Amino acid sequence: MYLLALAQPQRFSLASFVEDAPVTVELGRGRRWSPGNSDNRSHGTVRLVDALAHSYNQATVRVGMQVGPDRLAQLLKVLAGIEAEPNPSLILGSTDQSPYAMTQLYQFLASGGQVQPLRAVRGVLDPEGRLLKRYDTAPAPAQEGDSIAARLVTIALQQVVNSGTARQLQRDGLGRLSPAGKTGTSNDGRDSWFAGYTGDHLAVVWVGNDQNQQTGLYGATGAMRIWSGLFSRLPSSPLQVDGKGVEWHWVQAEGSYVTDADCPGARRLPFVAGTAPDYAPCTPDYLPLPLDGTAPPPAQAQERQPGFWRRLFGGGRAADPQQAPAPAQPPAP
């Protein structure tokens, strides 16, 4: 769902604000659907990247209803051959799907927007190692819009690991791989999911039981623990997101404008190139005071905010280099 949203950069970005508040969707015939968050709390106004990183269901549903469940159903069919009814609950992943189908979905993200069917057998060799038959083929080049949206989702999924529902992976020592991942738990607690990838490996883990009963596990306490054990032993390369078509900017802590890096609370986020919000300077009102609490003279205030007057009267500032920040080292479908 977030992939479809970020493919519309004039409407959505990872910096967009969305309300994580109680939401009710009309289903017809007098029926209503009111999903909640796993912690039974609402979190107010949050950025899109944080709604994804922390699995805020209410915010996700609000965005999903703007994108459209019908478009989401079409995407699932194209990417993984999943036939799903376009119900609003599809936004939160309420459709039966196998780990194989889930892996096919995440393959699109891990490959940067390329569609390549998964195969259990890639080829057949004779006893001397000569190729007799090959079944996999080179994927078609990714379309530019798809690849950029996939990169943005990958960056957001890295935040899931850095500070969201999968942050335990940092404590497991896997921050060195800068992985992207997503936890998932079904409403009835029967299914525990985790999908994650590094620079050269993708793995999806599902935990359930034969009786189709509750497991008592969340995605982070069940499937992710298996994924962590696997990647703790698997030689793998760190995930480095291609910066093509992406610009990084500092944005206001509680606003929507691009601002200065030293503005209090400013946060560095990626945008599709050419779609970042307008620039707004960090005004002197927000400059830090001296330790004694006295207001600094105007000259000192200008020194604390380098180039403030020049930017105020002389235009905006250039985009930051097209590269992701270093991963933090410290937790739906």
UniProtKB/TrEMBL annotation:
The record's SUPFAM superfamilies line, in alphabetical order, gives: beta-lactamase/transpeptidase-like
The Gene Ontology CC terms held by the record are: membrane; outer membrane-bounded periplasmic space
List each copy of the Penicillin-binding protein transpeptidase domain by range: 33-213
Q: Which reactions fall under this protein's catalytic activity?
A: [GlcNAc-(1->4)-Mur2Ac(oyl-L-Ala-gamma-D-Glu-L-Lys-D-Ala-D-Ala)](n)-di-trans,octa-cis-undecaprenyl diphosphate + beta-D-GlcNAc-(1->4)-Mur2Ac(oyl-L-Ala-gamma-D-Glu-L-Lys-D-Ala-D-Ala)-di-trans,octa-cis-undecaprenyl diphosphate = [GlcNAc-(1->4)-Mur2Ac(oyl-L-Ala-gamma-D-Glu-L-Lys-D-Ala-D-Ala)](n+1)-di-trans,octa-cis-undecaprenyl diphosphate + di-trans,octa-cis-undecaprenyl diphosphate + H(+); Preferential cleavage: (Ac)2-L-Lys-D-Ala-|-D-Ala. Also transpeptidation of peptidyl-alanyl moieties that are N-acyl substituents of D-alanine
GO MF terms here are: penicillin binding; peptidoglycan glycosyltransferase activity; serine-type D-Ala-D-Ala carboxypeptidase activity
| One BP annotation, GO | peptidoglycan biosynthetic process
Subcellular localization is given as: Membrane
Coiled-coil region list = none
The segment annotated Disordered runs over 172-191, 292-333
- Entry protein name: Penicillin-binding protein 1B
Q: Which organism is it from?
A: Pseudoxanthomonas taiwanensis J19
Lineage from the top down?
Bacteria, Pseudomonadati, Pseudomonadota, Gammaproteobacteria, Lysobacterales
